[in-house]
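Table 4 source record.
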Amino acid sequence: MKSAVIAAAAMLSMIFAGLTFAVDDIQPAAGTAPNFEQMKADHLKKLDDRINSLQEEKACAQAAKNPDEMKACRLKHWGEMKGHGHEMRGGRGMDTPGSKDNVPVK
């Protein structure tokens, strides 16, 4: 009976020790967590860049006089967005599965 109590106590202490180490691994070390204000500023800058690019494409499309000019507007915008694709998809890049759906219609 005494050995069963000791074995149970040993098991519980190992479980709690394991949980303690797991919780330590989940929490970021002090000073390594990204600064929220910096993350927010970066995100807002990327949004402004996208808005400006869309406004330029809109102006180009409004000025287009034929289908070829419209296509040129789309391709120019697509080329600009392709350059920023890595940032917009969290670092996945253009060659990820399903990214072929993003190719403009020819």
